[in-house]
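Q: Could you predict the 3D structure of Endonuclease/exonuclease/phosphatase domain-containing protein?
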Amino acid sequence: MMARWAVIGLGSLGVAATVVPFIPSDEWWIRIWDFPRIQVAVLLAVMLGAVPFSLPIRRRRTAAFAVALTVALGWQIFAILPYTPIVATEAKAAENCDQRSRIRLLVANVLKSNRNAEPLLSLLDRLRPDILVLVETDAWWDTQLAPLKESYPYGVAYPQENGYGMHLFSRFELIGPEVRFLIDDYVPSIKTGLLLPSGARIDLYGLHPKPPPLQDTARRDAELMIVGREVRMETAPAIVAGDLNDVAWSRTNSLFQEISGLLDPRIGRGPYATFNANWPFLRWPLDHVFFEDSFQLLHLAVAGNIGSDHFPFFVALCHRPAAEAEQEQPRPEPSDVEAADEAIEKGREEETD
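A: Sure. Here are the predicted structure tokens for Endonuclease/exonuclease/phosphatase domain-containing protein:
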């Protein structure tokens, strides 16, 4: 009897977790169910397998319950399937690359309460990235990161005590770096040009919008759409990197890609979950690096534990303009443009409330 009610209860929870994200709302308690799709899919699969052993097989209610589980499981698989090796990659791998056109980038949420910088510094010694985008940095972290200036002569520092501090370190010359506040006046982002050793100029955007558990997602979505629209309008090749507090398979992430035209290296490779480093069975991809189709992928990895609740995300790229003919850039439909405009308007309206 207990097994029967456990299957009904957990199976119903899985179905509900699948249905709730269809509600057209920015409320955090709705949007948060975009995150654990892999975990919900596993739950649904286990409950579906348990139905013949726990419930009366010949009853219509059992059949209806099994159908509900099957449909929900199918939808979850459909949502996460692009982030598996089963499908074709969106960002193609570079077969060879001029050393002067290579970019090694590391994104890391250091966790403001983390007071041990040594794991991060050791990781940097091992990976030797060209660009670092670090978030949740405060005054303590600003002091700990100061020695990096010897290896990274260019940078932007904006430490804060509110969990939204940000640091950018670069081996490449920065062109017109600026700290911007696109929605909230206490949530910074960084935009800068980068001069590669090849002589090419690219744009880099560093982001860390607010996470859903702290409020609804309207402001987060608006910030992403603002940047996506700006990327589409700019002529320089762009990279967008940071802790976006959104999963790869969310509707907002998909819309951001359509609006910006940027590629996601996870598609066709795997989820590469970066959060939560402390919960082995509850992890999802929150840290991202998107890039235009003039870049190809050299390497993609989730790096080791640095004492944060996020794992660092490492991406190595090759800037190769000829790659534009080899990769398909996401393109927005008129409805996508309208949805992005609405998201920006709604986020700005909430900002003034």
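Q: Anything worth pointing out?
A: The chain is about 35% helix and 20% strand.
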